[in-house]
Each structure stands twice: as C-alpha cells, then as structure tokens.
Amino acid sequence: MRPVLSLCLNLALVWTSVAPQTACRLRERFRLNEMYRKGDVVLGGLFEVHFLTVFPELSFTSEPEQPRCERFDFPGFQAAQTMIFAIGEINKNPNLLPNITLGFHLYDNCVKLGVAFRAATALVSGTEESFSDLGCTGSPPVLGIVGDPSSTHSIAISSVLGLFRVPMVQYNRGIWSTAQLRF
Predict the structure, then answer these.
(1) How many whole angstroms separate alpha carbon 83 and alpha carbon 114?
(2) CA distances from 169 to 28, 31, 141 (A)
(3) DSSP SS3 for 12
(4) Which residue from 6, 85, 132, 182 has the highest number of Cβ atoms inside 10 Å of its Cβ?
(5) For residue 24, what pLDDT band results from cuts at 50, 70 and 90?
C-alpha cells in the first residue's frame, strides 16, 4: 500500500509542476516610439512620425524581432510638435485652465494600423502591455486622443476606443462623408 501511495503522490507533484498555467502571460512589451509629459489631465495622440515599417525576416530558430519604424516623415512630426506647442501655450495662460496642467502622451503609428491599435490600447490602459479586462473601472489615463490622420484607421481605432468611452478626434483633413463621431 505504501509504494502505491508514494507513487501517486510523486505523480501528483510532477503533474502539477508541468501542468499548463491557465493565466495568459505577456512574453514581451511592445516597443512603441513615444513622447510624454505629465499633467493633471493627459491627452493622447497618434501621429505618423515614420512612414515605413520594416518587418524582420523570420528564421524560426530564434524569437522574432519586433518591426522597426524607418524613414522620418517631417509633416507627421510637425503635427505632433504642433500638439505639444498648443498644450504648452494652454499651460502658460492662467486664464484658460486655472490650476490644471495639460500633459500629453504621443505615439508614432508608423502608418500601420496594427501599430496604431497597440498605441491606442496603450493610451487607454496606461501600459504597453496587452490587457483583456473590459470591465475597467475608474477613468482612463488619457482624457481623449487626437488621432490617426488616416480616415479608415481613425474609424477602426475609434470603434475600439468607444468600448472604453475615450473620444478620438482626427486631426487631418479627410473625406467628411466617412467622418463619424464615436464615443
């Protein structure tokens, strides 16, 4: 009887040590290009600072590298700098928002919808790690997002942001018939 009990106990210990874990774990953080300044109220932004995304070749012998953003886009960088300048001017004027400091958290979307989605979820969750809790409580880290210059990207991203009640405003001129206000 004793050897059977010992065998069962050993098997139980081995089984629990190799059993798969039920909780999902993030293996790695996304590396997103960003600019940040603290404030009482933080506004998010998605801008096209680079216009080419290079996807590394897959070798299947090592972990894949994350895509890199290349080729600097001056107009996209200028749009991001315009938002930073406007926030600075608002903060300088004590009559506009007394006792409130605006901050910003801007991301480069590299003209890719997947990168823009990662950045948008990082803005509403406050982390670059993925999350799955749609029952979030409290207010999100950003009050709103000045969004992707592409109309199709903005509509797709605003649909996701609507789940968290974060508004998005498109800063670039687009086709007005496709522009929709979403919360």
Answers:
(1) 23
(2) 30, 24, 17
(3) helix
(4) 182
(5) very low
Kindly calculate the radius of gyration of the chain based on its CA atoms and give it in whole angstroms. 22
In angstroms, the CA 57 to CA 69 distance is: 15
Would you mind telling me the total number of residues written for the chain in this entry? Answer: 183
pLDDT digits 0-9 by tens, 79-107: 899 999 999 999 999 999 999 999 999 98
Residue 23 neighbours by CB distance under 10 Å: 4
Contact criterion met (CB below 8 Å) for 116 and 131 = no
Rounded to an integer, what distance in angstroms lies between the CA atom of residue 95 and that of residue 174? 33
Q: Write down the residue that tokens 């938002």 correspond to.
A: 83
Half-sphere exposure of 175 (CA within 13 A, CB side): 7
71 Ramachandran zone, left/alpha/beta (phi>0; psi -120 to 50): left
Q: Which CATH number, 3.30.470.10, 3.40.50.300, 3.40.640.10, 3.40.50.2300, labels domain 25-178?
A: 3.40.50.2300
For the stretch 129-146, pLDDT in tens is 444 555 555 567 888 998
Rounded to two decimals, what is the model's pTM?
0.68
Q: At what angle do helices 151-161 and 113-125 cross, to 10 degrees?
A: 30
